[in-house]
Design a protein that fits this description.
It contains two helices and no strands. With 32 residues, the protein is an all-alpha fold. The model has no long low-confidence stretch (mean pLDDT 66).
Length: 32
């Protein structure tokens, strides 16, 4: 997930935003 985004250097801004969103989703998913 995040590795794929990080390995795409052509969209630094978008990758940071997407990584943040994905991280938030993972945190939400890990909540009981």
């Amino acid at each position: 997930m995040n590795l794929k985004i990080v390995s795409m250097p052509h969209c630094g801004r978008a990758s940071i935003a997407t990584s943040t969103i994905e991280a938030g989703g993972i945190l939400l998913d890990s909540k009981p």
